[in-house]
Request: fold
Amino acid sequence: MDKSWMNEADRLLLPIYAEGVKNFLTQARRHACGRDRIRCPCHTCLNNLWLPTNEVESYLFIKGINLNYTEWIFHGEEETTLNVSDDDVGDDVLPEDDYIDDMQHMLDDIRSGTFVHVPEDNTTTPNRSPIPKDSPSTTFEKLLEDARRPLFEGCTEFTKLSFIVKLLHIKSIGGWSIKSFDMLLDLLRSSFPDVLLPQSYEESKSLERGLGFNYNKIHACPNDCILFWKENAALNECPVCKASRWIPNMHGSRIIPQKVLRHFSLKSRLQRLFMSTKIADPRNVRLRLASDGFTPFNNLAKPHSIWPVILVPYNLPPWSCMKDQFFITSLIIPGPRSPGNDIDVYLQPLVDELLGFWENGVPTYDASTKETFRLHAALLWTINDSPAYGNLSGWSTKGKLACPTYHMWRRRKWLFNGKEDHHMPPRDIGGYDILTQLQMIEDVMFGKCRRKRKCTAEELNWTKSSIFFTLPYWSTLRL
Reply:
């Protein structure tokens, strides 16, 4: 079938593109054998989603077909097999140019962003220094070797790396326990002794650390007073409430932390986000923050709360930025109770990273131009429900001043006569006004053990000065 229509830029006007889409869908329906859904080959879905045929047709006109999808193997065409002679292939490692899957693209981005030379000064001048290919780390060498090694001799579908990554993905989606994952690995190794599989889940998880998907555990006061972090890292008890940092485990043989915060670094994720999406203006990344708590157990008799803190990059296209695969998990706050107004204690590592992104940026490699630059990022706003909005903003969402914008008709409904109101709208409260109000707040001590204090009339409905005001640009944002 003629596929020249795939490269046409004007998809909505040229009849050759419409005719090509029509022929493609005809073949796809024939291959679907009566099913009403087919794989969508557009730029966004990349054959990963099954959609109705009419929706696929719309996506092909709006987003365009993936230009790399030249063999329609998911829509009726047979895959072309490459004949490789035995002299060109080693015992168990494929040639560098004949990878089985596309894992090497991700590894190339990691290598480029990690080992390229970047100037230390805070400039945006690109540096075209060559990538030192002869000095990769041991971890990256292992990843690259696993990405080239077939799962077993003669396997053309999976490499060792891609198969383990898919297993970890299924474990995450299916909610498998670590024990069940280890049992599956034991069964696969016993059934297929020639297959190159890890010995345990811990060995598989070491791949995540090599790919930059690791996180840091930060111990916290059980009463949410402080984090045992930075200057408090060496303390064994909270200096505010004197609560112990440790508790003995069920066997009494060792001690474990009472409360642990999980912090996911933004650096590698934002770097990889740029390299995978080819953002047109990469010097600034715009982010929004969303957070809310949920109970992981259906049984309310076992109270437990988990608060994930999610960042969403707005540099992506509108149809991609709200997809969960592009969300950035920055914090996970677990505990028997929600952090409430003390959430600022747990936001310290994230705000510290955001300050670094704004002031200094991080060196990032542009895979499309082979240049390096300083990547900066800014947080634009937060999106929450009303209780979480009160916790993050510092403005209480309870009481008569719960709504920051107040109108007299809310309490004096009899003044409304059904006619148009030609009075001037209420004055917008700017960042300077808010900073003036926050100066009236006394020092707020965090922690569940502290006694609640009554707000004075000068403090209005403020309960604290939000930690986001430590960002130098926060008071200038309209929202």
Summary: The chain has 13 helices and eleven strands. The longest strand covers residues 371-383. Confidence is low (pLDDT under 50) at residues 81-99, 115-136, 275-280.
